[in-house]
Structures are given as structure tokens and as C-alpha cells.
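Shipment paperwork, digital attachment
Item: protein structure file
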Amino acid sequence: MARALFGTDGVRGRANAEPMTAETALKVAMATAVQFRRGDHVHRVVIGKDTRLSGYMLEPALTAGFIAMGMDVILVGPLPTPAVAMLTRSLRADVGVVISASHNPFEDNGIKLFGPDGYKLNDSVEEAIEARMAEPFDADRAAPDLLGRARRLEDATGRYIEFVKNTFPRHLRLDGLKIVVDCANGAAYRVAPAVLFELGATVVPIGVKPDGFNINRNCGATAPEALRQAVIAERADLGIALDGDADRLFLVDESGRTVDGDQTMGLIATSWAADGRLRGDGVVATVMSNLGLERYLARAGLRLVRTPVGDRYVVEAMQAKGYNVGGEQSGHIVLNDYATTGDGLIAALQVLAVVQQRGEPVSTVARVFEPAPQLLRNVRFSPAAGAPPPLEHPQVRTAIAEAEARLGDSGRLLIRKSGTEPLIRIMAEGDDGALVTAVVAAVETAVLEVTGAGGSPAAAADEHAAAVAAALAL
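Attachment content:
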């Protein structure tokens, strides 16, 4: 059967509405427990979360589901997604669960599942779990004397802090660096400042006062303006922005210029290649990564392997092809010498290691190539019952074909529906910024017209032009 519940990053939706209800969370836990019960050993599941209010609803529902099927539950509280993946392996657990909607606003939440190896589940396993949810659980429930137990792992935070610190070269420290870290009022609000402080940096933490509602709100990796302002005001050497579950990273140099995931991957790959640490002959990234990264790696004798959007697909390709550096332009950086999923803190430390070794400012070290003009627009729509998907509408298909023809061999166009939100993502890049602006505006106008999402095409074109100009100025 095809997956209907699971998207590109687990199950996600609006809190307390299907599928993000306590009832569905209970069934997900019960079906997952059946999927991963193997042998007669005591089965364990690690459950972590971010700081959303709805975590208080979903955490006990998931806990009850696993306990009902005879699995012990280890609760670790608010911790980054990569911390839960690490603890799943460290504790020899059968399953890891993260309750988070990553970079989404607090109204949303999600459930991410990890196998005993600490990697996200592949499509076939998620399909099996979905199929199992449709069947009765009576025969699989644990007997009264075999119910699971739940306990809290009190030192989970400390374990992760030490794990991250051990990825930083032991002969280096962060002494002399002033670092602003924006934790997005999310899962890393305690651990990220602690890691940087313990390695010697002067730390200015922002986005570290979660209240259940303010995760990712005007802060973090998806809204770096607060970080830019803080870096400039504090005259800091570097700004580090994480998203709600801290698997995503965005950097700001000492002048306030942003450094995206493509630049970070390029820097890490070439520095590791120079040290003889790079496995494979390049980097694994998604179709969204900038053409400038591909050209930069080629000049260094390395290649860029592209995958569909989603860090899980990056990780699968890394495993299959033997690469140890991969990620997404959006800031998911996967370094599988250390972690099984994106880890914003670990990636930031790899950049800081190069900064300290070279003794040069971040603006010199971290901007390794000039990006080709690239523009991404997101069009939100409300799915209508019985209406064809926007990308299948003839008017949109015609607009896409015309845009591709205009770009020709000088650029590329990528149109896709988000796997986690009702969004159509329109991306184009090429050497001609004005042409990139024009083709994105044309496709966006077509999508707006067929979805009834509103918006002025003229205003959209003006906004496109401003966005491209700003991007080229960075």
C-alpha cells in the first residue's frame, strides 16, 4: 500500500486535528511496537520532544501505546532530534521517537520514528506500520504482568552535551570567540549554549525562553534576522541559528551575512578532503542545492550527488554510496561519521574547527563560493475536495513548460509539493537573475490562479525582484 499517513519527515499536521491527535498517536505507537518487537528481550523505546504545548498531549499518548504492547519507555524530555537518535543507539533501544514539527509553527506537531540503528525508517517500514494501524490489536496486547514501564532519563541532556563536544578536535578550543546562538525557543535551548560555553566560547544565547507557543516564532534557522541583529549589536564573531528540533543550521558571519547549508557543506567537504577524512568522492545533497556548490566542488575534484528533497533521502544515498558528508541547502547537514541524522550543533562545530585552525574570520572561511542566482517561492493553498492537485492543472503545466523553455540550458526549474505542508515550492536558478525572477513569477501566477490562493501577480513580481537583488547582495 502507498503511504498516506507518513510524509517526507514522519507524521505531521495541526495539533489536536487528524492525524496529530492523541488517538492516532496511540495507534502509531501500538503499530510501531508490533513492528519492532523481536525476540524475548526487554524492549525499549526512547521518546523525546521539542517545546510545543501539544507535546504534553502526544507524549503520554505515545507512552501509553508502547506500554500497552509491552515495551518499556524512556522519556528524555525536550532534546534535539539528533540527541534522540544518538540515545536510541546508546541505550540499545528498539525504537526512537521524536515529537516535533521541526521548523513549523507551534500549532503544528509531528512524530518522527527511528530504528534501533538510529536512522529514520525507510518507506517500506512506514508502509508496514500504516497497514498495521488498520488492523485490530487485541492479539498483540501485552498480558497484565507483561505491560511496559516508563521512566525518565535524568542525565539525557548531559549525555548529549558530551557526545557533541567529542566531535570537536580535542586540541582546539573556542577561546577568544564570541558566539550568538539562537535556539528558536526549541529543543536545544539548554544544550546548545552549554556546548559552546564548555568549549570556551563567550556565549550570547537568544531564543532560549520557550513557553509552548513561541517555538520558531521570528527566530531560529528559518527566521535569521533576529540573529543577524544580535551578531551586529554584540560585535560577535559568529551567529548560530538552529530550528525547533535543532537538526537544521544557519550561520551568520561577523558582518551579518548569512551562510546557508550549501556553503557549510562545501566548506566541510573540502576541509575534510584536505585532511584525508572525506569518504566518497564528494557530497550528497538534494535537487535544491545551488549550482554554485556543484561548480565549486567540481573545481576541487569532487562531485555533487543529488537526491529528492528530504534529509532521509540524503542519508539513504550516503549509506548506499559510502559518503560521509551530505545535507540540504536549508541547513540539514548530515555527517555520518558522528550522527545518523542532521545535527545543527555538530555541523557548526566543524565550521568552528576550520575557523580556529586558520585563524581567519568566519566571513573569509565560510563563504566558499558565489551562488548562482536562485529564487524559491512557496505558495500556500487549501486543498479542495475533488479538485485535481495544482501541479496537474493544465494551466500550471503549460506555465512550467514555458518557463523551462525560457531557461533552456542556462538554468533549471524545480517545482514540487511540500511533503509536510500544503505548499507548492517553486525554485529556479541560472546565471541570469532577471530571467530567474521572471520564470518563477510566471509559474507562481499560474498556481495562484488555479488554487484561488489570492495575491497580486504584479506585487509578486516586485517581491521576486527585491528578493533576487537581496540574495545577490549577500
